Amino acid sequence: MGDGEPSLRLADVTTTLDTALTALSAVDAELDFRVGGTSAALLQGVHLPAGDIDLLVARREDVDTFAAALEPYPCLYPASWISEAMQYFARYEINGVKVEISTVEWPVDSDGMECVGPGPWQHYVVVTCGSHRVPVIRLELRLATEILRDRPDRYEPLLDHMGAHGFDSDLLQTAMNARRLPAERQQMIQDRLAGALPA
């Protein structure tokens, strides 16, 4: 999200996802996906800046299927391979909200990464968006990403939310290790969440 760009509201995310998934259903497509990024945190009740909706899929043909379903909407970036990011990627706009669909194809063994390897497929919660049940990547994985990127406007709300509502300490440790967070950053997180209940 660029400077000065308005942040999405929860209603923007839920309405847009409902529209996208209804379009997918209309072409009789069923595929596995996860919502990631800041919109995933927003869907789990975290109040933080979110600029778009990130949909992770496992296969390139799934990006193509989503792209075909979203054909009535403006295409901002047609489905194609981005070699430097190692992802097959497309971007659409639905009622003013950017929706990005991609694979991320880095080889990873750990299940502690947010968008690569087995982590997003194993560690998620399901939330309701309109008429759809949507799998959303867990906050523990997102927090490690935001700490690594050093974005306090994102990680501070995540820490506040997890401190108030609980978290999975084992999963968080796995995520911090997978991201190779420095010891002092890990200690900061542990101190901030010391009084939180397990999720």
Summarize the structure.
Helix content is 42%, strand content 22%.
Written account of the structure:
- The chain has a single domain (10-192), classed as Beta Polymerase, domain 2 (2-Layer Sandwich).
- The chain is built from eight helices and seven strands, in the order αβαβαβββαββαααα.
- By secondary structure, the chain is an alpha+beta fold.
- It has a five-stranded mixed beta sheet.
The main sheet comes to: 5 strands, mixed
**What string gives the helices and strands in order?**
HEHEHEEEHEEHHHH
Q: Which percent bin holds the helix content?
A: 40-55%
Class per helix and strand makeup = alpha+beta
The count of DSSP E runs of length 2 or more, i.e. the number of strands, is 7
CATH class: Alpha Beta
- How much of the polypeptide forms β-strand, as a percent range? 15-25%
Topology overview:
Layout: H1 10-26, E1 33-36, H2 37-43, E2 53-57, H3 60-69, E3 75-82, E4 87-94, E5 97-102, H4 119-122, E6 124-129, E7 132-137, H5 139-149, H6 152-165, H7 169-178, H8 183-192
Parallel strand pairs: 2-5
Antiparallel strand pairs: 1-2, 3-4, 4-5, 6-7
Helix pairs in contact: 1-3, 5-6, 5-7
Features:
199 residues, alpha+beta, Beta Polymerase, domain 2, five-stranded mixed beta sheet, two-stranded antiparallel sheet, 8 helices, 7 strands, 42% helix
